[in-house]
Amino acid sequence: MLRYKFLLLLTITLNLVSLSSSSPSLAQISLIPQPSEAPLELDLLTKSKGVVITANTINLSGLSTPSLWWAKDSSENKLLDNWIAYPGTKNEVGRVDLIVNQQIWSLLDYLERYNFINRLGSTARRDSYNVRVFNYQKELLGTYTCNFNSSPSNCNIQLNTQYKLRRYQ
């Protein structure tokens, strides 16, 4: 576990170093949109509306976009319970609301939570989706938001720091 955390910290540090070498200006950072303020619609998990995709949606003609099934079936199986993907509109880019198991989430430290959001946010970004992470109490736990109009996309991760600190004995 200690080795895993060291490797995770090293990866994040190397990513930050590579980002700082191409350090975006303050103007570029401010162009990253704020996360959507639309409410989480948990009822869509059981009563899907046409174009909304969830982990329970099956597309008979091929893979649905964004494709998060592999992430759910592999390492995220116990943490990632479900998701709701909303396609983009004229006024807003597509977004995915991830719903996590609060018990598992509470066991993760800050770096593990950051890594989870970064992995799934990177997957969703390939299909031009922003990500919000919630628990079943509809509490916003974190976001991965990108400006898809820039090349490469400028992205920002925000974590709810209320859950950041954990007591060690």
Structure, described:
- The protein is α+β, with helices and mostly antiparallel strands and 169 residues long.
- It has helices spanning 2-21, 26-30, 69-73, 102-107, 110-125; strands at 53-54, 80-86, 94-100, 129-134, 140-147, 154-159.
- Mean pLDDT is 75; it is low at 17-23 and 163-169.
Write the layout of secondary structure elements.
Elements: H1 2-21, H2 26-30, E1 53-54, H3 69-73, E2 80-86, E3 94-100, H4 102-107, H5 110-125, E4 129-134, E5 140-147, E6 154-159
Parallel strand pairs: 3-4
Antiparallel strand pairs: 1-2, 2-3, 4-5, 5-6
* Percent of residues in beta strands: 15-25%
The dominant shape is: globular
Number of strands: 6
Cα-based radius of gyration, to the nearest Å: 16 Å
Distance between the termini: 17 Å
Class inferred from helices and paired strands: alpha+beta
Mean pLDDT: 75
Largest beta sheet: what is the strand line-up?
A: 1-2-3-4-5-6
Main β-sheet description:
6 strands, mixed
Task: Count the DSSP helices.
Answer: 5
Keywords:
169 residues; alpha+beta; six-stranded mixed beta sheet; 5 helices; 6 strands; globular; disordered C terminus
What would a concise description of this structure say?
With 169 residues, the protein is of the alpha+beta class.
